[in-house]
Amino acid sequence: MSSTTSALRTNWAEVEAQLNMEGHAPLPGFLSDDQVEELTRVLHAHLPASSSLEDEGIGRGRSLRLSGGIVPWIDVLRERLYEALVPIASRWAEALGAPVRYPATLPEFLQLNVQAGQARVQSFLTRLGEGDYQALHQRVDGEHVFPIQVVGLLSDPDADFTGGEFVMTEQRPRMQSRPMVLPLRKGDLAVIASAQRPHRGTQGYYRVNLKHAISRVRGGERTGLEFLLHHATQE
Fold first, then answer.
1. Which domains does the chain carry?
2. Cα(12)–Cα(109) distance, rounded to whole angstroms?
3. Mean pLDDT, consecutive 10-residue segments, the chain of 235 residues?
4. Could you say which of 3, 13, 38, 59 has the lowest number of CB atoms within 10 Å?
């Protein structure tokens, strides 16, 4: 089953309910074995062109930016996911009283990005070896930020690595940060809040702030996928 087929078969109403409750929603087995293997091959083949997470200030390990059509079906998948998630993003904006109107398609949204000086693709493959980690972070650079993004796991936590858990924190006003661990398996994706989401309280909606990270890999090699539905400003 292709990832496009997975997107069509996903119950997005359930995804929205989970996002509204927790700020994340799992998409188990979303990527096929062939897609996982292709992404892993691409990552290892292009490691010399990858960048250091230390240079980005968000941890230790390697990150390969998926720009220039390195994996064409990833671009198609981003479009399908945008179309599925844009109604949720629009409802979030309405709940928070934000004057944001997201276009119906990803190319239209990215055109707004480019016009605002945001032209740097934010789709990544990541490789974390023993001792590597990804620090708590958000990728919210630019005027046009899509509030939902996607992460995934390309290796087997039982056989390929230990440690390396995907972690999120949620900060609500006047409350301690709440930690969450997403138990991803090989081929799983998860939809997460990029930075903020609405939470309904007794007096209406308010913003909660979220960050995500990957805990230190204790052994082996962890490969993953992270992509956002907005571009960043040029460095």
1. 3-233 (2.60.120.620)
2. 21
3. 65 95 94 96 93 93 90 93 97 92 96 95 95 94 93 96 96 80 96 92 87 97 95 82
4. 13
